Amino acid sequence: MSRIRHTAADEPHFLVRALSAEYRDGVALAPHAHPWGQLIYSITGVMTVWTEQGTWVAPPQWAVWAPAGVSHAIRFTGRASLRTLYLRPGLARLGETSAVVPVTPLLRELVLRAVTLQFLDERDRRQAAMAELIAAELRTPPAAALALPMPRSAALRRVAECLAGAPGELGGHAELARRFGMGMRTLERGFAAETGISLGRWRRQARFLRGLRSLGEGAAVKQAALEAGYESASAFIAAFRAAFQTTPGQYFQAGPDGTAAGR
Fold first, then answer.
1. Quick one: angle between helices 199-216 and 233-244, nearest 10?
2. 133 with 221, same domain?
3. How many whole angstroms separate alpha carbon 63 and alpha carbon 102?
4. Looking at residue 13, what DSSP letter applies?
5. pLDDT tens track of the chain, all 263 residues?
6. What's the alpha-carbon Rg for the chain, to the nearest Å?
7. Domain annotation covers residue 231
8. Containing domain of residue 230, as a range?
9. For the chain, how many structural domains are there in total?
């Protein structure tokens, strides 16, 4: 079936714009922003999205919401089949902070249908209903386990960037504080105040996300756990199960319908 041709006169009536793209492993998109909020969803691979506020990692069955006007960069780990939506301002009502949101079976089908249409037009009752359903599905609570908030101050951001690059290699909190020339209590209190979570939890989160990206690259669970700084593969599997209620092996064996075993 051929697509409907749209003109500039139609644009004020669009509720959602949609597109698809394929990316190779390791492709990175430079920081950019959009006037409409963006739902960034990849059927395959693992995406990492960065903003000034933090880092968000989305494996298959999850997507990242980037609010309108928020600059963000994206890196794809593994082959990525991107299906992305841009929502008219005011439609989603998701706030001004990026988040990782679950892609329910209903949301997945709505996204795929929107991509085939390219646009959802408010003058078409079915398309308007689709847009409202998409917005409703996006209001599911975000996944805190897939987010890594960044400190605001320059000194603590330097610590965070170092930890994110080598989450298991910098010793305990006292050693870390000495390395960056600050008191341990100052370091711990600063992280809690500026990120909303304790330094210990932040480091665990960084390790988990590092392991998740390694899995997206095709690494075995044992290798992913080692690279992320876990003491054992079983410790990483336990963290993975706590986040996704299944094992890494079952999760990444998801079928073409996007449903993983064990969920």
1. 90
2. no
3. 6
4. G
5. 345 566 667 788 999 999 999 999 999 999 999 999 999 999 998 999 999 889 999 998 899 999 999 999 999 999 999 999 999 998 987 777 889 999 999 999 999 999 999 999 999 999 999 999 999 999 888 888 899 999 999 999 999 988 887 766 667 899 999 999 999 999 999 999 999 999 999 999 999 999 999 998 889 999 999 988 898 999 999 999 998 889 998 888 754 444 443 33
6. 20
7. yes
8. 150-251
9. 2
